Amino acid sequence: MAARLETERLRLRRFGTGDVELLVLLDSDPAVMRFLTGQPTPRAEIERVILPGILQVYAEHPGLGTFAAEEKVGGAFVGWFGMQPTDDPATVGVGYRLVRAAWGKGYATEGTKALIAHAFALGMERVVADTMAVNHRSRAVMRRSGLRFLKVYHEHFDDPLPGTEFGEVLYGTDRRTWEAGTHE
Fold first, then answer.
1. In 3D, which of 80, 90, 138, 85 has the Cα closest to residue 114?
2. At residue 163, does pLDDT exceed 80?
3. If 0-12 CB within 10 Å is exposed, 13-18 middle and 19+ buried, where does residue 12 land?
4. Maximum Cα–Cα distance for the chain, whole Å?
5. pLDDT in tens, 106-115
């Protein structure tokens, strides 16, 4: 991704080493983490694992990674959007995490659509996203973003979250479907 990607209301930019506080703010809200880990991410983990991992993806996979999202008007941090490499070099996984104050404003769909379009502009052939089957709000964002339900699958977790027993869901689209405009 270029240094910035813009949507109607958002600017997406690369995270830098000085962005620890933004990630701590985001990952410290139990409601934000409900379908992810079920608990806040410790600051030390963000400093030593999460942020270095984000920076490493930029270096190893040009154009991909996790990007800070800020409102164009006022510059408020609203969360992040990510395009992550997968085992298939022609496929990326997209996702997002937003601060609670940004929920319900359409930012998740707006940012995800922008990432999907950008992934295809980069030459990707397929975009996928996943979440817990019980995460109905994220599933709705995936559908509104142009992704279609593909399957339910089950993973083993040593300390499963409530709802894990219903599985994970995978959504996706391919370049041909996206370019045909069936994502509208």
1. 80
2. no
3. buried
4. 45
5. 999 999 999 9
Strand locations in the chain, DSSP E?
A: 4-6, 10-14, 65-71, 77-85, 91-98, 126-132, 148-153, 168-174
Which tokens go with 151? 């399957």
User: Is residue 74 classed exposed, middle or buried when 0-12, 13-18 and 19+ CB atoms within 10 A define those classes?
Assistant: exposed
DSSP state of 179: H
Least confident of 133-137, 141-145, 167-171: 133-137
> In a 10 Å sphere around its CB, with 0-12 CB exposed, 13-18 middle and 19+ buried, how is residue 157 labelled?
exposed
* DSSP of 56-88: HHHHHSTT-EEEEEEETTT--EEEEEEEEE-SS
CB 25 within 8 A of CB 96: no
d(CA 178, CA 8): 20
As to burial, measured by CB atoms within 10 angstroms (0-12 exposed, 13-18 middle, 19+ buried), residue 1 is: buried
Topology given in CATH for the domain delimited by 4-179: Aminopeptidase (3.40.630)
Q: What is the pLDDT of residues 31-53, one digit of tens each?
A: 877 767 778 899 999 999 999 99
Q: Which amino acid is at 103?
A: W
